[in-house]
Known about the structure:
Elements lengths: L3 E2 L9 H12 L16 H18 L5 E6 L6 H9 L3 E6 L2 H10 L4 E7 L21 E4 L1 E2 L4 E2 L10 E4 L16 E5 L10 E6 L16 H6 L9 H16 L2 H22 L3 E3 L10 E6 L7 H10 L2 E2 L10 E4 L6 H17 L2
Parallel strand pairs: 1-13, 3-4, 3-5, 5-8, 8-9
Antiparallel strand pairs: 2-10, 6-7, 9-10, 11-12, 12-14
Amino acid sequence: MKKYNFNAGPSVLPDVVLEAAAKAIIDFDGTGLSLLSISHRTPEFDAVMAEAKSLFKELLNIPDNYHIFFVGGGASTQFFHIPANFLGKKAGYVNTGVWTKKAIKEAKKFGEVEILASSEDKNFNYIPKGFAIPEDLDYLYICANNTIYGTEYKTDIDSPVPLFADMSSDILSRPVDVSKYALIYGGAQKNLAPAGVTFVIVRDDMLQKVVRDLPTMVNVNTHVENNSMFNTPPVFPIYVLRETLKWMKAEGGLDAIYQRNLAKAKLLYDEIDRNPLFRGTVEKEDRSLMNICFVMAEGKEDLAPAFMEYAKSKGMVGIKGHRLVGGFRASCYNACPVEAVEALVACMQEFEQMQK
């Protein structure tokens, strides 16, 4: 039976990327050595690192006054790396769910945190808008896409202070005006690679704004100045990330990927809205393209276990909603094919017919 991978992360990767990675594990770039056991300071891996950064800049149209570096530790380490480097007096945070709450907790250890807006009043089912941004902040911090609740920023904020964004789960899924951000970061395990590497995109001027003397590994300048190689980088995830970026370029670049993501999301959201057994959990204008969350319709809640079992029998993998919200979640990242979404929609329609 064919499996359709809707896991929220680690998530689906393109078949061509998996094939390249599998070959490299046996023989990396004709070296006769496994990718898992090469030195990260070989010319061959230098080329991988350089191409990964070059493709990142090309696909996301990153201006020349930005640096990209890769670091281990997972995106959650940035929850404290960011305030350690840049929070001198006060920072503003927009609270849109679990990941911003965790970031806020870490930031409070370094300075004052002002919650400029929050959607917690409605269980994080919308993106706050129209809030004031004080000009005395060291920075404004947002999470661009919220995997647990299924909300996503659809426009880039105009901020009078440096704007930082966690884009772990929607990086390179849609066009972004990078010039509006001072720093963008994210874990790779949604749209780019297996877990183990975090990307950071930082504007030049921020490198002079580190506010305290920090341990070497925490200082953002360390990783920029050492080309992501102050210590041994996560070689395998960076290689896979490079292969994923090559795949994206071959598929037509970011615009083509974005149009595909729009089509996939519309297909599934239209079915959620049409099917009397289901309902969405997010305000329509803030629905995520990446993480599509839904539950059984009012009065149909008792059918949830039966639908879950039926979906599994049809090859759907990873559609159980996060424990904090329940229901179902289909993560439709870049490498999720439209055929998978079509199969899920057919599954929902078949289950509907079974209830008649």
